[in-house]
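Example record

One chain of 171 residues, shown exactly as stored in the release files.
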Amino acid sequence: MYKKILTILLLTGIAFSQQKIGVVFSEKIRLDFEEFKDVEQQLQLDLEVIQKEYQSMATELDSMVKEYEQQSLMMSEELKKAKEQDIVDMNNSLQSYQMSKVGPNGELTRKQAQLEFELVEKFKAAVNAVAISKGFDLIVDGSQASLYTKPTIDLTDDVLYELRKTDQASE
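Predicted structure tokens for this chain:
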């Protein structure tokens, strides 16, 4: 049993020793590639606009509730019910707005997913270009579990260069 495991490990080691393996630190790329920062800023600005609109609607709802509480004793039953319905409608509008903008299928959520997908595709294309041009068989993400990486197999700067080159060509 132990001999079989040792043989498998030895054969796996031999197979990997014949492979040219590189490492890319995706976290460094996320921090150093300007387009990642631009996307984060764009999403942050969009979120701020949504928050301001939401806050404006919440303030309006709060005013409606205060006005109702102050004047409810002097209102007819018919007017009370109308004002209560206005408050319920405004509250529903507020919740609906929030879901349509930042809910699971909201506008901002979809935009974020689309922008992230586009960036990941660019990242993959850059990694593939570096792997092909430098003859690597396997490139792994060192951000996930690398405690040490031999500097000669770290391709992060090459991928950053490729991303920037591709980014400048598309401008």
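Notes: The first strand starts at residue 21 and ends at 24.
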